[in-house]
Amino acid sequence: MNTLGKVLLYLGIYALLHFAYEVTGIETFKPISGVDESVFEHLKIGFYAYFFASIIEYFLMRRKKLLSNFWTSRMFATIFVPWSIVIIWYLAPALIGKFGLQAELTWALTVTFLSGIIARQVEKALEFRELPTGFGLSVLVLFVVALVFFSVFTYQKPWIDLFVDPLTLGSH
After folding, report:
1. Closest among 162, 44, 54 to 112, alpha carbons compared
2. Where are the transmembrane segments (predicted)?
3. What span, in angstroms and rounded, lies between the C-alpha atoms of 3 and 170?
């Protein structure tokens, strides 16, 4: 699958997951779909959207010879997507400050597109390399940890936000 095809597939799945729970109210969608407009939920959507795009890519490519690093590269790229979304997203507030809703939506779409492009480049670079067993095992462990992270915090948000100073929260 070419880069643009993979990124467009990712964007389409992202859009579906963004609204799946909100539109249907089906509880099964909750762990993989957005349940509110928090940054966390958008990171979760990115994670699952890229992983689902990789699963579809696998079935589309299975007639071709798949490289041994197919899943390691896809899992690493999937883990990488949410963090690239954070880094790119917060670039705009860092440089220009707060902006309006239309600009925010445009920036959000741009960030999601760029995260797909970057993840695709990462996976393409990894799939053609000989990777040590330890790297593959580390990716698998981090992937499972990410699954737990996104699942648990869908239902129970952590006690502290990313940008809140814990000293200002008081005792709980």
Report:
1. 44
2. 7-25, 45-61, 73-92, 104-122, 134-155
3. 48
Residue 40 has which token pair? Answer: 């966390």
- For residue 150 the two structure tokens come to 């996104």
**pLDDT tens digits for 95-136?**
999 989 999 999 999 999 999 999 999 999 998 888 899 999
Token digits for 101?
């809703």
